[in-house]
Amino acid sequence: MKVALVSFGHADSAIPMAKALSERLSIDLFFTFSLNKRKNNVIDFEDIDLKIGLQNNEIKNQAFSKEVKEYLGENFPINLFVYKNLKLKSLTNWVLSWKYAKILRKYDIIHFNGKNMNILQLRFFMPFKKFVYTVHDLENHKGELAKNVFARNFNKRILKSKSHVVIQNKSDYELVKKEYPKNISSIYFIPFGNLEIYKQYNTENLNMPQSDVLLFGRISPYKGIEYFIEAVKKLKIDFPYVKAIIAGSGKFYFDISEIDSDKNFTIINKFIQSDELVAMVKACKIVVCPYTDATQSGVAMTAFVFNKPVIASNTGGFKDVIVDGVNGFLVPLKNSEAIYNKMKILLENDDLLKKMNQNIENQSRTGDFAWSTIARNYEEVYKIAL
Question: How many angstroms separate the Cα of 125 from the Cα of each of 5, 134, 159, 351?
Fold first, then answer.
């Protein structure tokens, strides 16, 4: 069985997934970008002069970092295909999809990881191939509604098709089972594991600030950052020197002038490079995710790579990965008091914090969130699809 894993972003989870799958079957990994979008967590080739289409070895060597290449190994087949832009109506993109489809036709299974409108073009040119989809976000997050109606309905079209679809959190999986009862035999729940590729990054020469509590990721309304701020303000009464970091790119959706001058807070409002992210997570005690809605979260799975407990809202995929009191805490949505209470418990109980660190390390080796287990489950889906 030959599989093409075609990933539209989501590099930090696609790479360990591909590595684990390569131990079970023949798999080639394809990353798909456009000229106006060349950055995604562990991949960044904004400064490379390249042309559209499948990139040659020279460009690939420049585009993929040494950390990615070292993690996958020198002989692992990793490819890069670049579109002109993200427009479905672009004639150039149609031609590119025709060329891409010619490359992908030799595989038994085409596994699309993530959402991109070019998938529809690729399907058009490969009408008889077997497809598997991994859906990361069933619905757009609050405050991030897609402008294109067609794009908003993309997942619904996929779920109504006869393709095999993988959902990555139990809440969405249960919802999909109710909404698409006729297709349930081709819909599966498979989570993703710790984003272990981040262990490859050397942070010895980075001087990132230490923190007691860390909130990181792209700034967006659904992240619930205001509840984190309110919780830290309460925490200052018990821990006057508490250090809180908010790190990520994007425009804040509320006034942060009050905390700009607060010595307890550090705001790092920019795109966080992978090595910087690793250094920040290593230097914190607790990661906090006060989201108002969520699917699965790469933030939690990144924190777990470095054995950091996570305090998160009781929503989406957090309910799948956080065992309350074992590797973190779940709190009610939009509840700064609950976030404060859990942060206080961990910061004043060093033994509990260390116990959670150890629990996380133990859990990463075996169980449903081990990449070996995940790879085995995907292999079963591929066999069923064939």
Answer: 17, 20, 20, 58
Q: Is 324 in a helix, a strand, or coil?
A: strand
Tens-digit pLDDT profile for residues 73-120: 878 889 999 999 878 889 999 999 999 999 999 999 999 999 888 999
Residue 309's pLDDT band (boundaries 50, 70, 90)? very high
**Could you tell me the two tokens for 339?**
């976030």
Residues 66 and 134 in one domain: yes
Amino acid at 45: F
Q: Which two tokens stand for residue 177?
A: 């089972």
Q: Are residues 163 and 244 in the same domain?
A: no
Could you give the dihedral angle defined by the CA atoms of residues 71, 60, 126 and 12, in that order, rounded to the nearest 10 degrees? 30
Scanning 163-270, the segments in alpha helix (DSSP H) are 170-179, 225-238, 257-260
CA atoms within 13 A on the CB side of 244: 29
CA–CA gap between residue 306 and residue 201 (Å, rounded): 12
Q: DSSP assignment of 285-317, as one string? A: EEEEE--SS-SS-HHHHHHHHTT--EEEESSTT
Bridge partners, 29 (sequence order): 5, 78
Residues of the domain holding 327: 197-363
Query: Which DSSP letter does residue 74 get?
Result: T
End-to-end CA distance of the chain: 9
Distance CA 357, CA 361 (A): 7
Sign of CA dihedral 221, 113, 375, 72: negative
DSSP 316-353: TTHHHH--BTTTEEEE-TT-HHHHHHHHHHHHT-HHHH
CB under 8 Å to 291, separation ≥6 — which residues?
Answer: 222, 223, 224, 297, 312, 313, 315, 316, 318
Do 125 and 211 lie in one domain? The reply is no
Mean pLDDT of the chain: 91
CATH of the domain at 49: 3.40.50.2000
Number of domain units in the chain = 2
Rounded distance between C-alpha atoms, residue 386 and residue 130, angstroms: 7
- Let me know whether 324 and 374 are in one domain: no
**Cα separation values, 52 from 33, 118, 119, 145, 286, Å:** 10, 14, 17, 29, 42
> What whole-number distance in Å separates Cα of residue 122 and Cα of residue 289?
36
> 160 and 210, same structural domain?
no
CA 160, 101, 155: angle at the middle one, nearest 5?
20
